[in-house]
Structure formats: C-alpha cells, structure tokens
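Worked Example 4.2. Consider the chain below.
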Amino acid sequence: MEHTVTPTEIAANKSIYDFLSAEIDVGRDVQNLACLFEDVKMISIMDKLWRVTESMSLEAYIQGIFLRWKGRGTYIHPFDLKQKMGIADIKKTVPNELQTTLYLEYLLNMLRLYDREQVDSSTRNIRINVEDDLYRALKENLSSIVSALNLTQVEKTPDVVILVPNDAAVVESVSHIDSTSVKMAVLEYNHISIRDNLTEKQKILHILAKDFESKKQMLTKSSEWQTLASDLGFLFNTLDIRHNNTEGIKAVSAIQKMPKEGLLKWYDTTYRLYLTAILVSDYNSKCKEEIDSLKKMVNPK
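Applying the procedure from the previous section yields the following structure tokens:
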C-alpha cells in the first residue's frame, strides 16, 4: 500500500534553519504584518505617574493622530481610506499583487506619520510607551517584503510615499532629470495601479513628450542618434499623446482602430525609448567630451 507523506514527516526532515531561511511567502507575511499593526496591543497610554491606563494597537493609536497627516486628502479616518483602497479585509483574504502593494504603501505612510508624531513631542498631550521589539519587528518585516518584491519608496509629496519597481534603467534615467514633476512622472509610470490604465499612461507620456523637446536638439547632434530622435518624436505625435489622434484634423485611422492592448504596448515602447533618449542625451552632453579627453591622454599625438 502506497504511503502518503504527512506534513509532520516533511517537517521532521527539516531543521529550524530551513524554515527561517525559506523564501518569503508574500501573501501570508503581509497578512501577518496586518495582524501585528492592527491587532497586537503594542502601545500603552500612561498617566502622569507613568501608570498604564490603556493598551491599544498601533493602528488604533494612529486613528487618534490621523487628522494631523497632511497627506490624508479629505479622509478623516484610516478605515475609510482602507475601504476605498480595497484593503480593509486584508487579514481575511490572501491579497493579490495590487492589494499587496497598496497595503504596504498604507503601512509605510502610517508608520511615517507615527514616527513624525513621536519626534515632534509638542503634538502629543498624552504619554505613551511602545513595545520597541514589536515595533522594530514590524518595520524590519515591512522592509524585507518591500525588498523581496523589488520595490522602492518614492516621495509623491513630502507627506506621501508610494512604491514603484526598483528598475536600474529608471533610477539611472531619473538621476539625469532636473524637473521634479518629470522625475515623478517617470517613476509613477511603473506603479502597479496604472499597469493597464491607458488614460493615466497617456497623461504621463504627455509630460514626457514636453520634456523630450528640450532633449531633441542634444540627440540630433550625433548622426547615430538622429533616428532615435525622429522615431520618438513620431510616437509622441502619432499615438494620441501630444495631439488628439482619435478625432479631429489630426486623427490617425490606424490609431482609431487600434485595440487598447496594442496602444498600451506602444505606450510602453515609447516610455522605454524616452528613457534611452535621457541616457543618450547625458552621453552627448557630458560623457562624450570626457571620453574624448581621456582618449587624448591615452594616445597623445
């Protein structure tokens, strides 16, 4: 008779190290983060004699300071925000990719609010004590999940952070962009919430199209990059980005008939070519001269 291996027998063949060093189970670990943040009573409210009068979760405490968050928009309670984001039941149902990212963003912003409130003690009219080990574990586990998902924090505003993919080409391109609004547009293009959102990608590419005008002259200085400049200009002008190419005098029949999936593909191509143009412009404006100088040093006449 065939023997079925039980979970107990499987576990018996592993050491504690195997469990501790196993890959992160993102869904489970995000739910554990939610439990730690929303349920575990790690905050103690103290009276003037430092006696505990009440214990609560970190989220419950943050509910009391939520209105001090300058990034809250028109929300007056964190639960309302979670409801709108679709992450209110994160502990009950394993989150999908979008819910995971949004919950991590929510948690990051709430912890930033808590940390700022603790630094500025003048905003507090009560004495509190936090379980340091639990709070440290919460932040460390959050950081581990963000890192495992290859995400990086970006300040949308001084009071709000979002998470975007940690793409080396994007990071390098952004380092060569002066405009804050253009930097933000480049970073936001990869946010999971607009992955299939044609309208939002169009808005971002419109910003990049305007910025491209200042880069075009630098690109056309070198004959090898003139084609890139021409092709990128064509895409910006034809794909319903810079002009209305779906109706009116600038309408393009092929664009009118193109399905959403096809247009999204071309938008992503346009975005990648814009990043290439940024790096090429830096090469033409700085690197080429430095390389020419090095050549003269290495091969003096």
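The mean pLDDT is 88. DSSP finds 13 helices and five strands in the chain. Compare this with Example 4.1 before moving on.
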